[in-house]
Design goal:
heterodimer; A: alpha/beta; seven-stranded mixed beta sheet; five-stranded parallel beta sheet; 35 strands; elongated; B: mainly beta; five-stranded antiparallel beta sheet; four-stranded antiparallel beta sheet; 12 strands
Chain lengths: 793, 108
């Protein structure tokens, strides 16, 4: 019996099949189009099915690539059945329900992949699942609710995705992986090691070089036996061991196959009017592993069908992978070890970035922990135009605005191949103002979402900052659903002058240890002195003005301006240390003396006997000014760095800031006070002073930016005042000057700080300096009952 | 006197939203004054690395250890991770508290 006939029939309702259909309509193909989807649901975003498990996505329809009425409007039909084979002569497709569909012009195989079948005993048990399709995710979700221990078979991308989703639902998750490292086909040893460490940190148990030999249970899963002999009691198991091209219906129809369905550069198979695209298609021996090449194939197929000349080129691409919230971009031959590779490995920050270089181009990439260079790397990979300057891609410090330097042809969204030019065009043409709008209009940023920050920057630049943020809330803790600027203006409008009232009115009522100190900072900035100074929201260091140590004791660092001290002060420190039996005295990196191991109740007594003010080595404030001796004694000294350092520290000491602020003054460019890695650094020259800002010598090393050169000390002090106050008024809570400059750009800061406008910056700083009082004075005037002591004392 | 309870101080000595340490009978106890005016007493030692819980930030009935940020739910003394209990992370012992005439009594 002949079925209904359509001009183009696409077998497969995955992303590639969908892309063939939508591209045909985009290029105004006029014939009828029909999709046969084995999964019986409309094409959806497979990359996000793990979110069904976690419940982050509640409705299947949220994952649909297009709403159901889109198909009607575009005259694209959909049948939810499995195609079992085609008669290429009669142009008839047989479905598994014994009906048939005819194609008049063309049939496209976009059958995608199927999970690898595991010959393990017990896979038929209840609560043992495969993880590939939307319906798998739905089944897993419904069972996971009551499960306690989950075993994931497979430590590849899919397995880890499933593991991190399951960790949100069940107490214990085990990942069993055959290879000796996770994601061995994408990651090298170092990257896999770091990933394992991070995955384990999230409470997921990883068993490498191990396989499941049996799912044990009587009808229902009870335990899993590993090849190493271990038996893990488990009530749910998910098999995510990989995928292989679904070629059966094509093979059964006499179409040439190898691992995949063999296609030429125009996506034609060896049989007339039969095309293939996506993960089921094999071009020059390669099967697309990521979304981007599948989409590219589908577009070529659509064009060929419509008679537009197009050829597919297998280019290395980089894609953002979604694993347990760990930033990871992988592309090309990432595991290979060519003669040349450029590597940045920062273990303390858990950042690993590697570019493999072959034949003058980037052949493979891994970015783990910090994926900011992704767009530029991807651009360099496909265009080979970075010259020989590949190293700057990862070894330089990528600012947030790096996308702005890319040409319009640069592909920003690797998944859908959307260029910067297309994004700009959509913004201008349709007046778009949010990343979400750009996604709806162009698809950019809707696949793996890795390029969203880049799109945000393009928007910001194009709209001069007038863009709408989406999905961004103020704090990672989720206690308040507002951006920081919204919070500020709402607190002002509603006259909210305490952390408590903000949390009650705008948040979840209770807050947490992350948002409370930040909110206190926000109210103090809005209301200056007219707010409730709530001690209970402070971290312990800021309640007792000392730095808590691992044994619960505290460290005491008195203020020693510029690191310059007198014999009598030294004697006092020695005497006090002996009297209170201070276990450890240490000279700090900031040229101070640190007394470790002091009990909380001894703090006020020690401060009293020291007779020195607080050195603020515990809080977000102006801390130390490191100095070199300068022209006072040094043979090379050009300026009096020591006196300027002391003067600077006396002026700015202890001022509350968004983050800690460290100063340094060197008397000559030999830079003995390390001015280039200070928040504010000065270098003496023959003619005066050079001022540097935004340096950082901590975990994320950053060389300071040059701010200005001045002849007079008074001018240096004035510019420093202006910079510090601008930072105090505009940085986010916890943001160091280095991050503040990265975010806002040094040019903007220079414009403001060097401006002669009467903006009141110096006056407002002078006001705060006026109001400053030494927190160690609380020894005589306690802020709360038993501030330093305990009950019953 | 309440049988089996020790008077440890008065309610004004523990500011609202904070905790105070109590050392008695060889034990270290953290006494918290919750925002809802209730008092709760638990062992002062964090089950993670022994951090002083009395010095933590209190939010509702959750205290965050000042050393490494483990969260403890004071209602039952359990360690939490994003409000989910961490399996095997341990639990702190809770002591009964009675408030009478602004005096704090703890059952040890």
């Amino acid at each position: 019996m002949a079925g209904i006939a359509h001009d183009v029939v696409i077998i497969g309702g995955g992303p590639a099949g969908f892309e063939v259909a939508s591209t045909l309509r985009e290029i105004n193909y006029g014939g009828s189009i029909h999709i046969i989807g084995e999964e019986k649901v409309f094409p959806y975003n497979r990359i996000r099915i793990a979110e069904i498990i976690t419940g982050n996505i509640k409705e299947e329809s949220e994952l649909f690539l297009k709403p159901t009425d889109w198909y009607r409007k575009n005259n694209i039909g959909f049948t939810g059945q499995e195609a079992v084979g085609i008669n290429t002569k009669g142009q008839i497709i047989s479905l598994d329900n014994s009906t048939e569909i005819n194609y008049r012009d063309v049939v496209v195989f976009a059958t995608g992949s199927k999970p690898v079948f595991l010959p393990i005993k017990g896979t038929e048990l209840e609560n043992v699942f495969y993880f590939r399709k939307l319906e798998d995710a739905c089944k897993i979700r419904s069972k996971a609710k009551n499960a306690k221990v989950c075993v994931i078979v497979g430590g590849g991308l899919l397995g880890l995705e499933a593991a991190s989703a399951m960790k949100k639902l069940v107490k214990q998750v085990h990942v069993i992986h055959l290879a000796d490292r996770l994601m061995e086909s994408q990651l090298d040893k170092i990257a896999a090691f770091l990933l394992k460490e991070q995955v384990e940190k999230q409470g997921i148990n990883v068993h490498l070089s191990n396989e499941v030999i049996e799912f044990i249970g009587d009808g229902v899963l009870e335990a899993v036996e590993l090849s190493a002999g271990e038996i893990i009691p488990a009530d749910i198991a998910v098999m995510a061991v990989g995928k292989k091209p679904q070629i059966e219906p094509a093979k059964a129809s006499g179409i040439k196959t190898n691992i995949g369905i063999i296609v030429d550069a125009e996506m034609r198979t060896n049989v007339k009017n039969v095309y293939a695209a996506g993960e089921c298609a094999e071009y020059e021996g390669t099967i697309p592993q990521l979304l981007a090449p599948s989409i590219a194939m589908a577009r070529v197929a659509a064009k060929s069908i419509a008679g537009i000349s197009a050829t597919y080129v297998d280019k290395p691409v980089a894609a953002q992978l979604k694993i347990a919230d760990i930033p990871l971009v992988v592309g090309g031959k990432s595991v290979a070890e060519p003669l040349t590779s450029i590597v940045k490995f920062d273990y303390p920050s858990r950042i690993y970035q590697k570019l493999n270089i072959e034949e003058g181009g980037i052949s493979g990439v891994i970015l783990l922990g910090d994926t900011r260079p992704a767009s530029q790397v991807a651009h360099a990979m496909t265009n080979c135009d970075a010259g020989n300057n590949f190293s700057s891609l990862i070894l330089g410090s990528p600012g947030p605005n790096m996308a702005l330097s890319l040409p319009n042809e640069a592909v920003i969204c690797q998944c859908y191949g959307i260029t910067k030019g297309e994004i700009l065009h959509s913004i201008r043409e349709h007046g778009l103002s949010s990343v979400k709008d750009v996604g709806n209009c162009t698809k950019a940023g809707t696949g793996c979402k890795g390029c969203k920050p880049v799109i945000e920057n393009i928007l910001k630049d194009e709209l001069n900052g007038q863009f709408e943020t989406d999905e961004q809330t103020s704090f990672p803790c989720g206690c308040l659903n507002f951006t920081r600027s919204e919070l500020g203006s709402k607190a002002k409008d509603l006259n909210l002058r305490s952390v408590e009232s903000i949390l009650e009115t705008l948040g979840n009522g209770s807050g947490c240890s992350i948002c409370k100190p930040a909110l206190q900072f926000i109210v103090s900035r809005i209301w200056l002195t007219e707010y409730k100074d709530d001690r209970s929201v402070r971290f312990i260091n800021d309640r007792v003005h000392a730095n808590i140590q691992k044994d619960g004791s505290f460290s005491v660092v008195p203020r020693i301006y510029g690191g310059v001290i007198t014999p009598s002060e030294l004697k006092r420190i020695a005497q006090v240390s002996e009297k209170f039996e201070v276990p450890l005295i240490k000279i700090t990196g900031g040229q101070r003396i640190d007394l470790f191991g002091v009990a909380k109740e001894d703090l006020p007594l020690i401060w009293e006997e020291l007779g020195l003010p607080s050195g603020h080595a515990y809080t977000k404030a102006v801390r130390t000014c490191k100095t070199c001796v300068g022209e006072l004694y040094c043979r090379y000294g050009l300026q009096d760095s020591l006196n300027l350092g002391v003067k600077l520290e006396k002026r700015l000491k202890g001022l509350a800031c968004p983050g800690k602020v460290k100063l340094g003054v060197s008397g000559c460019p030999r830079n003995c006070a390390e001015s280039y890695v200070k928040d504010i650094g000065l270098i003496g020259t023959e003619n005066g002073w050079q001022i540097f800002v935004g340096g950082n010598g901590g975990a994320i090393l950053r060389e300071a930016n040059f701010l200005a050169s001045v002849a007079e000390e008074t001018e240096a002090l004035r510019l420093i005042d202006r910079f510090l106050q601008h930072y105090r008024e505009n940085a986010e809570y916890g943001e160091r000057t280095s991050q503040f400059i990265e975010r806002t750009g040094i040019e903007e800061i220079r414009n403001i700080v060097l401006s002669s406008r009467q903006d009141g910056l110096e006056a407002r700083l002078a006001d705060d300096i006026e109001k400053y009082c030494d927190p160690w004075e609380e020894r005589n005037n306690q802020a709360t009952p038993l501030q330093f002591t305990q009950l019953g004392s | 006197m309440i049988k089996g309870y020790v008077m440890v101080g008065n309610t004004k000595q523990v500011p609202k939203g904070e905790g105070r340490l109590l050392e008695t009978h060889g034990r270290k106890v953290a006494v918290f004054h919750l925002d809802n005016s209730n008092f709760i007493a638990v062992d002062n030692q964090c089950p993670h690395h022994g951090g002083p819980l009395a010095d933590g930030i209190l939010s509702g009935d959750i205290v965050t250890c000042p050393l490494h940020g483990l969260k403890i739910r004071l209602a039952d003394g359990k360690a939490l991770d994003n409000n989910l209990e961490i399996a095997g992370a341990g639990k702190v012992h809770k002591y009964p508290v009675i408030i009478e005439n602004e005096k704090i009594f703890i059952g040890l």
